[in-house]
Amino acid sequence: MAKRELPKYIYRQRNGLYFQRRGWLTRKVENEFGTAEFWREYADILADKDQAPRVTTRSFAALIKSYRANPRYRNLKPRTGKDYDKYLDFFQEIMGDRNPVHLKRKDVIRL
Fold it and tell me: What is the pTM assigned to this prediction?
């Protein structure tokens, strides 16, 4: 079966078909391709029925958490770490759940 025969976001893996879409959890498709049950399951997945929440790891809160777990941050001198914490906490309070990809220069200047 060629890829073009499969619907959008459906990919064939070694052990079956999987729904894979950026920002969504990967999910194995239980029904055989081409059956009415398959199309019903595919429509339910796209409609978010019985779907876990979308993956949202791209946020300033996640970025700050990742930085604080980094050895470069942990190896800072105590005074430098306190200064960084002050600014990181301020920044997280303002921008915590936003996506860093959408940050523009004008947003930084506004801070």
Answer: 0.47
